[in-house]
C-alpha cells in the first residue's frame, strides 16, 4: 500500500530536530523521527504507522560514525548504518568490539543494512532486534537529546516493552555508547528464513581468565522470549560459579537459561530454541 | 492547532540525480522513491512488488549501495546518486545488454523476469563493493530478494560468472604498474 499523507521536515541540525519534535508534539501533530526508515517506512506503507509529520534527520552527518573514547568506550552515532559497522576496519572498531561487527550479518539483508541505522533500531525497540540485545548484554548507554538537555539512559532502563522505550516524545536518540570491550562475546539467533526477524536470539559475554580457558563469570541475554530483550540471571549464576570453558559449561548455562524464561507464545518451542542458541553462543564466545 | 497539523501535505519540488541525469519532480511527501522513478520519471525498469521491503524487486543503488526504493521517500534521495536498471545497458543508445545482464541471460537466471531488475541492481552493488565475492557470499546476498521461478541457483551462477569475467578483465596492480 501507499503511506498516508504527512508533512515532511528536513532537520538542519540536532537542535532543529528537537525543537521541531517538541513543537509538533505540543501541537498534537504526532511527529516521528525518520532515520534510515527501514522499519518506519514499511510500517507507514502498511499504514500501521500514520504520523502527521516526519522529521528527517538523514542529513545530520555529525550523528554518523564510530569513535573510541579515551576511556576505551565505543561511541556509535545514531545514524551509523548497520553496514558501516559490518564493514568497519579494526582501526575504527577496536578488536574488543568485533562481536558488534559479527552480529550485523543477522540484521535483515544487505539492502536493509545499507540504509537501516543503529539509533533507529534501538528507538524502534523490536524485542528481537540485534542492537537491542547487544545493548542490554553489554550495558550500553543510550544518549538522548531533548529541549531539557542531554540524558544518558542505561540500556537496562531503556526498553519498556514492545516498540516502547524511555525516550521522551521530544527527545532524539543521538548516540549509543558501549562502555567496555567484550572480546569473548557472541550473538546468534534463529529465524525460519535467514534475514527475517529472529524467533529467538541469544547473546553471551564471557569473563575468561588470562589462561584462556577458565570462565570466571559472564552475562547472558535473550531476545524473543519477552516484550524486551532480557538478561538471564539464572544462567549468569552458572557462569559466576566458574569452570573450564567447554561443552559441559555451555550445556549447563543453556539449561539454566531455558528453565528461567517464560515466553508469552510458543513457550516450549522458544525455550527449546533458547537452550540451543545459548549453548551455541557460549561455544562461539569460548572459541574467540 | 498549527496550520499543518494533519492536513494532507502539499507537493514539494525535488531535485534527484538518476543515472547521472539531474531530474526535477513535483511530488507529494509520501511518494516513495520507487513510485517517483516509475510514475514521475517513467523509469519503469524498477519494479514494485511488496512495498514493505521484503521482496527486493525495487532494489536500486543509492550512492552505490543497494537499497529498497519502496522503503525510502523520494525526498530522502535528494543529494544522492541513484542508479536504476536502465543504467546497466551498454552501446551508443544504451539498448545493448551490459555484462551482468548478459551473464543472467547466459545462465538462465530469469524466467518471468519480474524480480530481475532488483536482482541485477543487488548484484551490481555487491560486485562494486566486493569484486572478489565468493559464491557463498553471493548466495547469502541474493537471499535478500525473492525469486519464485529460478530457485536461485542460476542467479548465483550468473553473478559469479560476471564477477569472474570482470576480475579477468581487470589488470592486476603489477600489470598496471608495467603499463605506466
From TrEMBL, chain A:
Domain of life: Bacteria
InterPro entries associated with the record: CO_DH_flav_C, CO_DH_flav_C_dom_sf, Diverse_Substr_Oxidored, FAD-bd_PCMH, FAD-bd_PCMH-like_sf, FAD-bd_PCMH_sub1, FAD-bd_PCMH_sub2, Mopterin_DH_FAD-bd
The UniProt record lists the keyword Transit peptide: no
Pfam families in alphabetical order: CO_deh_flav_C (PF03450), FAD_binding_5 (PF00941)
GO MF terms, alphabetically ordered: FAD binding; oxidoreductase activity
SUPFAM superfamilies (UniProt xref): CO dehydrogenase flavoprotein C-terminal domain-like, FAD-binding/transporter-associated domain-like
Keywords: FAD, Flavoprotein, Oxidoreductase
Protein name, per record: Xanthine dehydrogenase family protein subunit M
Source species of the chain: Streptomyces albus
Amino acid at each position: 500500500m501507499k503511506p498516508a499523507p504527512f508533512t515532511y521536515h528536513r532537520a538542519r541540525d540536532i537542535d532543529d530536530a528537537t525543537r521541531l519534535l517538541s513543537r509538533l508534539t505540543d501541537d498534537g501533530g504526532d511527529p516521528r523521527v525518520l532515520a534510515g526508515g527501514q522499519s518506519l517506512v514499511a510500517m507507514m506503507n502498511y499504514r500501521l504507522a500514520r504520523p502527521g509529520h516526519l522529521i528527517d534527520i538523514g542529513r545530520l552527518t555529525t550523528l554518523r560514525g564510530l569513535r573510541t573514547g579515551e576511556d576505551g568506550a565505543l561511541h556509535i552515532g545514531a545514524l551509523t548504518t548497520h553496514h558501516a559497522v559490518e564493514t568497519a576496519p579494526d582501526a575504527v572498531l577496536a578488536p574488543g568490539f568485533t562481536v558488534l561487527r559479527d552480529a550485523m550479518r543477522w540484521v535483515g539483508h544487505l539492502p536493509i543494512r545499507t540504509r537501516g541505522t543503529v539509533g533507529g533500531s534501538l528507538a524502534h525497540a523490536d524485542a528481537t532486534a540485534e542492537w537491542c540485545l547487544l545493548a542490554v548484554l553489554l550495558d550500553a548507554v543510550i544518549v538522548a537529546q531533548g529541549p531539557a538537555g542531554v540524558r544518558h539512559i542505561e540500556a537496562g532502563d531503556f526498553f519498556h516493552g514492545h516498540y516502547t522505550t524511555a525516550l521522551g516524545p521530544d527527545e532524539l536518540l543521538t548516540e549509543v555508547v558501549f562502555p567496555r570491550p567484550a572480546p569473548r562475546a557472541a550473538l546468534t539467533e534463529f529465524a525460519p528464513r535467514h534475514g527475517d526477524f529472529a524467533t529467538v536470539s541469544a547473546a553471551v559475554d564471557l569473563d575468561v581468565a588470562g589462561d584462556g580457558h577458565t570462565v570466571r563469570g559472564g552475562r547472558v541475554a535473550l531476545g524473543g522470549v519477552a516484550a524486551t530483550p532480557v538478561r538471564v540471571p539464572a544462567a549468569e549464576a552458572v557462569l559466576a560459579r566458574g569452570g573450564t570453558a567447554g561443552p559441559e559449561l555451555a550445556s549447563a548455562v543453556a539449561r539454566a537459561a531455558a528453565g528461567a524464561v517464560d515466553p508469552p507464545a510458543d513457550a516450549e518451542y522458544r525455550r527449546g530454541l533458547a537452550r540451543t542458541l545459548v549453548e551455541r553462543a557460549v561455544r562461539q564466545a569460548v572459541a574467540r | 492547532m498549527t496550520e499543518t497539523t494533519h492536513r494532507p501535505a502539499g507537493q514539494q519540488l525535488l531535485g534527484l540525480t538518476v543515472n547521472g541525469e539531474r531530474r526535477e519532480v513535483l511530488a507529494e511527501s509520501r511518494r516513495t522513491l520507487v513510485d517517483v522513478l516509475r510514475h514521475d520519471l517513467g523509469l519503469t525498469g524498477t519494479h514494485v512488488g511488496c512495498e514493505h521491503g521484503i521482496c527486493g524487486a525495487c532494489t536500486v543503488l543509492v550512492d552505490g549501495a543497494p537499497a529498497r526504493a519502496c522503503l525510502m521517500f523520494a525526498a530522502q534521495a535528494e543529494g544522492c546518486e541513484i542508479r536504476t536498471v536502465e543504467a546497466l545497458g551498454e552501446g551508443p543508445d544504451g539498448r545493448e545488454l551490459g555484462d551482468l545482464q548478459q551473464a543472467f541471460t547466459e545462465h538462465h537466471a530469469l524466467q518471468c523476469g519480474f524480480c530481475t531488475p532488483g536482482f541485477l541492481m543487488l548484484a551490481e552493488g555487491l560486485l562494486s563493493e566486493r569484486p572478489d565475492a565468493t559464491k557463498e557470499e553471493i548466495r547469502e546476498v541474493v537471499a535478500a530478494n525473492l525469486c519464485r521461478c529460478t530457485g536461485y541457483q542460476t542467479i548465483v551462477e550468473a553473478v559469479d560468472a560476471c564477477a569472474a569475467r570482470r576480475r579477468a578483465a581487470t589488470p592486476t596492480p603489477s600489470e598496471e604498474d608495467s603499463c605506466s
